[in-house]
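Example for tutorial group B:
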Protein backbone atom coordinates (compact mmCIF):
# COMPACT_ATOMS: atom_id res chain seq x y z
CA UNK A 1 0.00 0.00 0.00
CA UNK A 2 2.75 2.43 0.93
CA UNK A 3 4.60 1.57 -2.29
CA UNK A 4 1.46 2.38 -4.32
CA UNK A 5 1.05 5.70 -2.56
CA UNK A 6 4.69 6.49 -3.28
CA UNK A 7 4.19 5.69 -6.98
CA UNK A 8 1.01 7.78 -7.07
CA UNK A 9 2.79 10.73 -5.42
CA UNK A 10 5.70 10.39 -7.87
CA UNK A 11 3.25 10.29 -10.78
CA UNK A 12 1.45 13.41 -9.58
CA UNK A 13 4.79 15.17 -9.05
CA UNK A 14 5.97 14.26 -12.56
CA UNK A 15 2.70 15.28 -14.20
CA UNK A 16 2.50 18.69 -12.54
CA UNK A 17 5.29 20.35 -14.54
CA UNK A 18 3.83 18.94 -17.77
CA UNK A 19 0.38 20.38 -17.15
CA UNK A 20 1.90 23.72 -16.14
CA UNK A 21 4.12 23.85 -19.22
CA UNK A 22 1.11 23.21 -21.48
CA UNK A 23 -0.58 26.33 -20.10
CA UNK A 24 2.47 28.59 -20.22
CA UNK A 25 2.48 31.08 -23.10
CA UNK A 26 5.09 30.66 -25.79
CA UNK A 27 7.55 33.43 -26.78
CA UNK A 28 5.25 34.86 -29.45
CA UNK A 29 2.28 34.95 -27.08
CA UNK A 30 4.44 36.64 -24.43
CA UNK A 31 5.58 39.27 -26.97
CA UNK A 32 1.97 40.05 -27.85
CA UNK A 33 1.08 40.22 -24.16
CA UNK A 34 4.01 42.57 -23.49
CA UNK A 35 2.67 44.93 -26.15
CA UNK A 36 -0.60 45.25 -24.15
CA UNK A 37 -2.90 45.30 -27.20
CA UNK A 38 -6.01 45.80 -25.01
CA UNK A 39 -4.76 48.96 -23.31
CA UNK A 40 -6.52 51.46 -25.60
CA UNK A 41 -9.86 49.65 -25.92
CA UNK A 42 -12.85 51.55 -24.59
CA UNK A 43 -16.53 51.19 -25.41
CA UNK A 44 -19.91 52.54 -24.31
CA UNK A 45 -22.39 50.17 -22.69
CA UNK A 46 -26.04 51.11 -22.23
CA UNK A 47 -28.16 49.61 -19.53
CA UNK A 48 -31.54 50.85 -18.29
CA UNK A 49 -31.16 54.02 -20.36
CA UNK A 50 -27.79 54.90 -18.82
CA UNK A 51 -24.69 54.93 -21.00
CA UNK A 52 -21.35 54.23 -19.35
CA UNK A 53 -17.88 54.17 -20.91
CA UNK A 54 -16.18 50.86 -20.17
CA UNK A 55 -12.51 50.11 -20.61
CA UNK A 56 -12.03 46.52 -21.76
CA UNK A 57 -8.36 47.29 -21.43
CA UNK A 58 -6.82 44.43 -19.43
CA UNK A 59 -5.24 41.52 -21.27
CA UNK A 60 -6.87 38.24 -20.28
CA UNK A 61 -5.13 35.81 -22.65
CA UNK A 62 -3.40 35.32 -25.98
CA UNK A 63 -3.35 32.04 -27.90
CA UNK A 64 -1.61 31.54 -31.25
CA UNK A 65 -3.30 28.68 -33.09
CA UNK A 66 -1.01 28.63 -36.10
CA UNK A 67 1.77 30.65 -37.68
CA UNK A 68 3.32 30.26 -41.10
CA UNK A 69 6.43 32.13 -42.19
CA UNK A 70 8.21 32.11 -45.53
CA UNK A 71 11.14 34.09 -46.89
CA UNK A 72 11.84 34.67 -50.57
CA UNK A 73 14.86 36.91 -51.16
CA UNK A 74 14.33 40.10 -49.19
CA UNK A 75 10.61 39.56 -48.66
CA UNK A 76 9.15 37.73 -45.69
CA UNK A 77 5.52 36.68 -45.59
CA UNK A 78 3.69 35.59 -42.48
CA UNK A 79 0.18 34.47 -41.72
CA UNK A 80 -1.22 33.65 -38.31
CA UNK A 81 -4.48 32.83 -36.62
CA UNK A 82 -4.92 33.51 -32.94
CA UNK A 83 -7.28 34.59 -30.20
CA UNK A 84 -6.94 37.67 -28.04
CA UNK A 85 -9.10 38.04 -24.92
CA UNK A 86 -9.48 41.32 -23.04
CA UNK A 87 -11.45 42.15 -19.90
CA UNK A 88 -12.39 45.05 -17.67
CA UNK A 89 -10.43 45.75 -14.52
CA UNK A 90 -11.70 44.21 -11.30
CA UNK A 91 -12.76 47.68 -10.10
CA UNK A 92 -14.91 48.44 -13.18
CA UNK A 93 -18.53 49.37 -12.62
CA UNK A 94 -19.61 47.03 -15.43
CA UNK A 95 -17.66 43.75 -15.50
CA UNK A 96 -17.04 41.71 -18.62
CA UNK A 97 -14.76 41.00 -21.48
CA UNK A 98 -14.49 39.66 -25.00
CA UNK A 99 -12.44 37.35 -27.11
CA UNK A 100 -11.60 37.93 -30.75
CA UNK A 101 -10.10 35.39 -33.10
CA UNK A 102 -8.15 37.10 -35.86
CA UNK A 103 -6.41 36.06 -39.04
CA UNK A 104 -3.35 38.14 -39.78
CA UNK A 105 -1.32 38.29 -42.98
CA UNK A 106 1.67 40.50 -43.60
CA UNK A 107 4.61 41.06 -45.91
CA UNK A 108 7.86 42.59 -44.72
CA UNK A 109 10.70 44.09 -46.74
CA UNK A 110 13.73 42.66 -44.95
CA UNK A 111 16.09 45.36 -46.27
CA UNK A 112 14.10 48.14 -44.55
CA UNK A 113 12.25 46.06 -41.92
CA UNK A 114 9.02 47.77 -42.97
CA UNK A 115 5.70 46.05 -43.43
CA UNK A 116 4.61 46.46 -47.05
CA UNK A 117 1.22 44.74 -46.70
CA UNK A 118 -1.01 43.94 -43.74
CA UNK A 119 -4.38 42.34 -43.37
CA UNK A 120 -6.05 41.81 -39.99
CA UNK A 121 -9.52 40.26 -40.02
CA UNK A 122 -11.56 39.38 -36.95
CA UNK A 123 -13.31 36.11 -37.80
CA UNK A 124 -14.96 35.16 -34.49
CA UNK A 125 -15.94 36.91 -31.27
CA UNK A 126 -17.19 35.84 -27.85
CA UNK A 127 -17.70 37.03 -24.29
CA UNK A 128 -20.07 39.54 -22.73
CA UNK A 129 -18.86 42.35 -25.01
CA UNK A 130 -18.25 40.10 -28.02
CA UNK A 131 -20.98 41.79 -30.06
CA UNK A 132 -19.33 45.16 -29.52
CA UNK A 133 -15.98 43.93 -30.87
CA UNK A 134 -17.00 44.69 -34.47
CA UNK A 135 -17.31 48.34 -33.42
CA UNK A 136 -13.80 48.17 -31.92
CA UNK A 137 -12.29 46.30 -34.87
CA UNK A 138 -10.38 49.39 -36.04
CA UNK A 139 -8.84 49.91 -32.57
CA UNK A 140 -8.02 46.20 -32.14
CA UNK A 141 -6.49 45.99 -35.62
CA UNK A 142 -4.53 49.19 -35.01
CA UNK A 143 -3.17 47.91 -31.69
CA UNK A 144 -2.13 44.61 -33.29
CA UNK A 145 -0.60 46.42 -36.29
CA UNK A 146 1.43 48.76 -34.03
CA UNK A 147 2.65 45.78 -32.03
CA UNK A 148 3.69 43.96 -35.19
CA UNK A 149 5.47 47.06 -36.53
CA UNK A 150 7.44 47.49 -33.30
CA UNK A 151 8.48 43.85 -33.24
CA UNK A 152 9.44 43.87 -36.93
CA UNK A 153 11.48 47.05 -36.36
CA UNK A 154 13.43 45.24 -33.64
CA UNK A 155 14.81 42.98 -36.38
CA UNK A 156 16.81 45.96 -37.73
CA UNK A 157 18.21 46.91 -34.32
CA UNK A 158 20.55 43.93 -34.24
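The residue assignment follows.
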Amino acid sequence: MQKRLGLLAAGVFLLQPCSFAAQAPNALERAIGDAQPCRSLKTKVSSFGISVEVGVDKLDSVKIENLQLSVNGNTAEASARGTLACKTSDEALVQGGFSATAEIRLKVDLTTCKMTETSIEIVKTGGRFGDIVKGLETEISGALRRSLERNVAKLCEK
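Residues 1-22 have pLDDT under 50 and may be disordered. Compare this with the pattern of hydrophobic and polar residues in the output above.
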